[in-house]
Amino acid sequence: MLSKIKSIALNGLDGSLVEIQTDISNGIPDFEIVGLPDASIKEAKKRVNAAIKNSGFEFPNKKILINLAPANIRKEGSSFDLAMAAGILIAIGKTPQIDLDKLASSIFIGELSLDGKLNRTNGILPMCIEAKELGIKTVILPKANANEASIISELNIIPVSNIEELVQYLNKEKNIPRFINNNFLFNENYNMDFAEVKGQENVKRALEITAAGGHNCLMIGSPGSGKTMMAKRLVTILPELTINEAMEITKIHSISGELKKDGLIMNRPFRMPHHTVPISTIIGGGRIPVPGEISLAHFGVLFLDELTEFS
Fold first, then answer.
1. Per DSSP, what are the bridge partners of residue 10?
2. By C-alpha distance, which of 90, 88, 127, 99 is closest to 7?
3. What would the pLDDT profile of 84-104 be if each residue is shown by its tens digit?
4. Residue 110 and residue 108: Cα distance in Å, rounded?
């Protein structure tokens, strides 16, 4: 019994298509995942097993082999849980009414809880952007990510709550309408204004030139003279974000788990890291590379207070 379904892997700020190939055969019961998975994907064996059982389905007591193709690209994160669970259920015949043509143009994204529910997953927006570019029509994902994914209006966003609801959808027993949200633009007003600054005419003129030309600015002055106060207000005199700029900022924040609200970030970011943070926090990176403060300040302001204290 073999099934093939699709998902998306993140590689930095971009995504790449991954085919989840599930083979179930007779033999000594075993569950193996191959295709350069990281530790969190290997742990998915326990999550998928418990989630399927706790959703009222029988987990196959057979030899299960899942291949994440292409096998030469490293896969990271827990977003493949839903795809692997769906692959197993399809392979053992729990979805006899499934539309194979529709399945071929769909991707599955989501992390599973042990009770079969789907948890919110980071990086949904860049995954959906990649899916659109690859010609994918439908994205099946956790309900908690539906608002974020609906930014990409060309995709059919199908939000599901748990495995049982997924099986009902695949068997056409339950109709889950395409999720549409037209209220995803958060064009909030800043809670401060550059016009509030009194005096400091020379510094204000320097910051206006900085904003107009996109320049760096070094402010030197005694404590309490207003350096931080004016730096925080610099974003309020920058031009409004374009949709493409907002999409790029939101994508970076989605990958880093910094997305506080569903939908596009329409305010320019202001980042003020402390001088004691490690260098990887500033420039990004790590064992699993994530954006640093420089990237999170993209199209906004990066303020390094007490500059000489930074390593």
1. 15
2. 127
3. 999 999 999 999 888 888 899
4. 7
Give the pLDDT confidence of 254-311 residue by residue, as tens digits: 888 887 666 678 889 999 999 999 998 999 887 767 899 999 999 999 999 999 999 8
Strand duo 156-160 + 138-142: pairing: parallel
Cβ contact 88:95 at 8 Å: no
Count CB neighbours of 77 within 10 A: 18
Residues 265 and 186: beta-carbon distance below 8 Å: yes
- CA 176/CA 165 separation, integer angstroms: 9
For 157, the token pair is 């966003």
d(CA 170, CA 132): 21
Rg of the chain (C-alpha set): 23
Residue matched to tokens 């374009």: 242
For 112, 143, 226, 257, the CA distances from 179, given in Å and listed in that order, are 21, 9, 47, 22
Closest CA to 57 of 143, 171, 157: 171
- In the numeric block, the tokens 């003279």 are attached to 225
Condensed to tens digits (0 to 9), the pLDDT of residues 182-194 reads 655 555 678 899 9
Which is more confidently placed, 35 or 188? 35
- CA atoms of 203 and 209, how far apart (whole Å): 10
Cα angle value 5/8/13 (rounded, 5°): 175
Tokens 């569903």 belong to residue: 262
Instruction: Give which of 118, 46, 58 is closest to 92, Cα–Cα.
Output: 58
State phi, psi for 118 to the nearest 5 degrees: -100, 135
Q: Which two tokens stand for residue 211?
A: 């904003």
| Peptide bond just before 70 cis, omega within 30 deg | yes
Regarding pTM above 0.85, the answer is no
